[in-house]
Amino acid sequence: MTLALTRLGAGGDGIGTLPDGRMAYVAGALAGETVTAIPGIRRGDGVAARLVTVTSPSPDRVAPPCPHAAGCGGCSVQHMGDALYATWKRGLAEAALSRAGYPDAAVGPLVRSPPGTRRRADLALRREGGRVTVGFHGRGSGAVVDIPGCLVLHPALLAAAEALRGLAARVPMLSREGSAILTLAPEGVDLWLVTDREPDGPARTALAAFAREAGLSRLSWSRAGETAEPIAVLAQPTIRFGAATVPLPPGAFLQATEAGEAAIVAAVMAALAGLRDGARVADLYAGCGTLTFPLAARFRMLAAEGDAAAVAALGKGANGAGLSGRVVAEARDLVMRPLQPAEQKGLDAVVLDPPREGAAAQVALLAAGPVKRIVYVSCNPNALARDAKILHEAGFALDSAVPVDQFLWSAHLECVASFSR
């Protein structure tokens, strides 16, 4: 059917109205366009629709720069012109904060990472006959799409993925599917293979040789849901946070790009600029110390994190930098055991960087506690809207918000929001 699209959705889809009044979400389309599309499965309050043709294109439509744009699910809005893209993506933060009760939020300009700088990726592996595909899942499907020449990944990750294609086809470690978690460290790419078949002795020998030939820093293996087992460690992968050098566990969380990390750190530091030196600050969901160590230059830090390997790495980084008296690392599942109001006494501020599902339980306890300043680092506008609403209802004002774009041409957005009361 023919649809006139009136607006852009949070996922980047063009949205129009069906004859029965329901919304149609058309991937690959833009507001202001007239398209022919085929309505499909139910999606929220409407239906997803497959784009067939664009009969009246928007002036903001451009040719996607990547040859994989039509099928790859990694990028969803490469057809969107740059000016519209920046406005739409910044608008995701504005809309989230408006839903939370801050309709006039002072959202700063979008901070963007350049193409070709993403330093961490979780790629899918799939064997079909004698061929192994290494790439991202297809758009709206379970297919795996090869991505040679991907425009968002760092060249070092692309080179490792290309080498892995040949290795996986000849080394028996994959019956059907798995994944390859690649992290770029100064020492080289750290590769963690997750497969459905354990490599035997000859396969392990081949993997160790591959690690040397490909210039990897480390190669680990596991089945899905298991702890990584190092097979070849040529150099311990590390990361520098502030004054600390931290040993990276396999698959450790990092911000996706160095530029994105720098922007997030700068926004958090700016939000806490008014605190006195030596103030006590809690860093919740601290990971390996992305924010803990830069903040430790001014503040006394409590770093809480549920992943034991990350906490151990953070502790080693603190000891190596001579910060053991300034940084306290605690292994703590903040979903099952969030920081209680009584434990917040004496804290001058709390910083939290939760996973995509957000931190509703922890934010509710912060809202009920004595802390006057909270800096929330969000990676999901929907979770930000829900959790910021809790703070709004508890009387917190929104002082600043900085949107950070590390996942180019996608609906993923980070935002550093600072609240006070």
What does this structure look like?
The protein is of the alpha/beta class. The chain is flat and about 65 Å long. It is 24% helix and 32% strand. It has an eight-stranded mixed β-sheet, sandwiched between helices. It has a seven-stranded mixed β-sheet with strand order 9-8-7-10-11-12-13. The protein folds into three domains: 2-61, OB fold (Dihydrolipoamide Acetyltransferase, E2P) (Beta Barrel), CATH 2.40.50.140; 86-114 and 255-420, Vaccinia Virus protein VP39 (Rossmann fold); 120-238, OB fold (Dihydrolipoamide Acetyltransferase, E2P) (Beta Barrel), CATH 2.40.50.1070. The protein has helices at 82-99, 155-170, 201-213, 258-271, 292-296, 308-320, 360-368, 381-393, and strands at 2-8, 14-17, 23-26, 34-43, 46-56, 111-112, 120-128, 131-137, 144-146, 177-185, 188-195, 218-222, 229-233, 238-241, 244-247, 280-284, 300-305, 327-331, 349-352, 373-378, 397-405, 414-420. A hairpin with a 6-residue loop joins strand 12 and strand 13.
In the sheet with the most strands, the strands line up as 6-21-22-20-19-16-17-18
The helix content is 10-25%
Write down the domain tally.
Answer: 3
The strand count comes to 22
Please tell me what the overall shape is. Answer: flat
Instruction: Output the radius of gyration.
Output: 23 Å
**Ends distance:** 52 Å
- What is the typical, i.e. mean, pLDDT? 96
Spans of at least 5 consecutive residues with low confidence: none
| CATH architecture descriptor name of the largest domain | 3-Layer(aba) Sandwich
- From the 3D structure, determine the CATH topology of the largest domain: Rossmann fold
Q: Helix and strand string, N-terminal first? A: EEEEEHEEEEHEEHEEEEHEHEHEEHEHEE
User: Strand content of the residues, in percent?
Assistant: 25-35%
Number of helices: 8
Instruction: Name the CATH class of the largest domain.
Output: Alpha Beta
